[in-house]
Write a structure and sequence with these properties.
Strand 19 and strand 20 (477-480) form a beta hairpin. Strands 7, 8, 9, 10, 11, 12 and 13 form a seven-stranded mixed β-sheet that branches. The protein has 563 residues and is α/β, with parallel strands linked by helices. The protein has 14 helices and 25 strands. It is a peripheral membrane protein.
């Protein structure tokens, strides 16, 4: 037990007692149930606790012995006392997601059967209008297991080389070759599963030919380039340590120029995205022979063909059993499409790839609700990884699943039609499959990761926690704890129940805040966890900062049960 002193003006000081973290009543009761009369939990009883309370069916006596060896304290006791038991539960080796689970989804299905960790304008260091372009954010994204990297490629000022930049903005360019080399070096540093490079192409045919040469020389045998259009997408497993190119084939690229010229005035009025990739491609007229040569070399590299084609939404979503492709829709286009073509979108994504990207007015590199795309089967929900906030935290949470490899298998309900050939309806009122019961006992670590006056100049923080489910509309809910005043080690000891109709798509959102009477409540940590992979039992839940970096010490003690 220690004391903290806070200054109040020039002459007054307030003193607060800081107690050490103490086991909650529930933990004490469980310890008493599984310990003997001398107050020691034996190896055998700890083993029982791991199986019965922690639901670790495969736990062994050796696992229990290892916990006692790490937290037992007195070697003569040959067991755990209450303090050691509490510390073992509240330690970093007891996380909410099982690190031993690793990559456990079936990775042999077509790419269209997976959510894929996807970046938008992956080269930008900040906002969409004036930030620098660099290979650094590309490297950082790959190190987080992002598997889809987007590059906007333009001619340089001399029209003899290729740069990556956000067109028609003040962003400073970076050389394409530098980006390609960094992708090659870091592509598989965090995951061995395939990297897709989506090219938003604003090049003349001669520069397309140069891009083809760059890509071929940079990636060599790493490059997956099928000899003909794919009838079915290959699996992530078959493409380990391979790189794929996805863009619009040159023919469609040249045709889109005509559409672009007709629509330019309208688009400027709408202030739509500067890289409205399916509509705003540009091309200068070139010699037909040059175009043909470039088209041949460039097209050969494209593993996943992109394009909307002619017509409207119904035509874009038409499934061709002899050819797979990638369709890109902007955030507003998707929102409109799900109102009128929700079933067609889901059917399309059972075989083809659908990429969603942020609307153009998000110049601050903010993001949108990814669940609109996910619950309709969209695999590539493209995000500005350099931003932060609730939406990006959801993205981080989704891709903590499946060992953090960047590929998460979509639920069967999005992949298979029902007995009457009906498809999943995310808005339907479905029966509850399971209920997640969450007990939030306490939190600790803020006094180690923050300065004494970070949250309040005159007193310790007043923490409360918001909890909620993100998922299909029927499952979404928000709840919160009471506020614990003037305490660095808040003890809430509250229970919450979350009925879930589609637990396969549910994410548990957690955010801790410091209550301020006269100002905005101060952020104190967050995390987002895939419900389907939560370990039952009592777990130490680490918290992350706004940008998704894990704090050194801050964590919550929680219990998860499915009832």
């Amino acid at each position: 037990m220690s004391k903290q002193t806070y200054k109040v003006g020039f002459f007054f000081r307030r003193q607060f007692t800081m107690a050490a973290a103490e086991a909650p009543a529930d933990i004490k009761n469980l310890f008493n149930r599984y310990s003997d009369d001398s107050g020691v939990m034996s190896v055998q009883n700890l083993h029982r606790f791991l199986i019965e309370i922690q639901k670790e069916k495969n736990a062994s006596l050796e696992n229990a012995e290892a916990i006692i060896n790490n937290h037992g304290g007195d070697s003569n006791q040959k067991g755990l006392q209450l303090d050691g038991f509490f510390k073992s539960l509240f330690s970093d080796v007891n996380p909410p997601l099982d690190p031993k689970l690793g990559i456990h989804h079936d990775m042999t299905a077509p790419l269209s059967h997976y959510y894929i960790y996807t970046g938008h304008n992956s080269y930008l260091t900040g906002n969409q209008l004036s930030s620098d372009c660099s290979d650094v954010p590309i490297i950082q994204a790959l190190q987080r297991s992002v598997r889809v990297i987007e590059l906007d490629i333009w001619p340089n000022s001399d029209k003899d080389d290729i740069e990556v930049l956000h067109g028609r903005t003040l962003t400073a360019p970076v050389a394409l070759i530098k980006c390609l080399r960094s992708i090659k070096e870091h592509a598989f540093s965090a995951s061995e599963y395939p990297v897709v490079i989506t090219l938003e192409d604003h090049l003349t045919p001669d520069l397309q030919e140069k891009v083809a040469e760059m890509i071929t020389q940079t990636f060599g045998d790493m490059l997956f380039s099928p000899s003909e259009s794919l009838k079915e997408l290959p699996s992530p497993e078959s493409l380990r340590k391979r790189v794929m190119i996805s863009t619009k084939p040159p023919k469609e690229y040249l045709q889109s120029k005509e559409v672009k010229e007709k629509d330019d005035t309208k688009k400027e009025a709408e202030q739509d995205d500067a890289d409205e990739e399916e509509d705003e491609d540009e091309s200068d007229e070139e010699d037909p022979k040059s175009e043909k040569k470039a088209a041949s070399e460039y097209k050969r590299l494209i593993a996943i063909h992109a394009g909307k084609g002619k017509g409207g939404l119904s035509d874009w979503l038409r499934v061709d059993l002899n050819k797979v492709r990638r369709l890109s829709l902007s955030e507003p286009e998707l929102e409109k499409a799900v109102d009128t073509h929700a079933k067609e979108i889901i059917r399309f994504t059972q075989q083809n790839l659908l990429r969603i990207y942020p609307k153009g007015i998000r110049v601050d590199s903010s993001n949108y609700d990814p669940f609109v795309g996910w619950m309709h089967g969209a695999q590539m929900v493209a995000f500005n990884m350099q931003g932060y906030g609730r939406s990006l935290w959801l993205m981080h949470g989704m891709f903590r699943a499946n060992g953090g490899c960047g590929y998460v298998k979509k639920p069967d309900l999005l992949l298979k039609a029902g007995p009457n050939n009906e498809v999943f309806d995310p808005t339907a009122n479905l029966p509850v499959k399971t209920t997640l019961k969450v007990t939030l006992y306490m939190g600790d670590g803020w006094d180690k990761d923050f300065d004494q006056t970070h949250f309040d100049t005159y007193s310790p923080p007043d923490f409360y926690t918001k909890l909620g489910i993100a998922g299909v509309p029927a499952d979404e809910v928000k709840k919160r704890t009471k506020t614990i005043d003037d305490n660095w080690i808040p003890s809430w000891d509250e229970q919450f129940e979350f009925p879930l109709t589609v637990p396969e798509l549910a994410l548990l959102r957690i955010k801790v805040l410091d209550y301020n009477l006269s100002d905005k409540d101060e952020f104190a940590g967050q995390t987002c966890l895939p419900v389907a992979e939560l370990r039952q039992g009592i777990r130490a839940v680490p918290l992350y900062d706004r940008k998704g970096e894990k704090y050194s010490s801050v964590k919550l003690l929680m219990r998860f049960e499915f009832i």
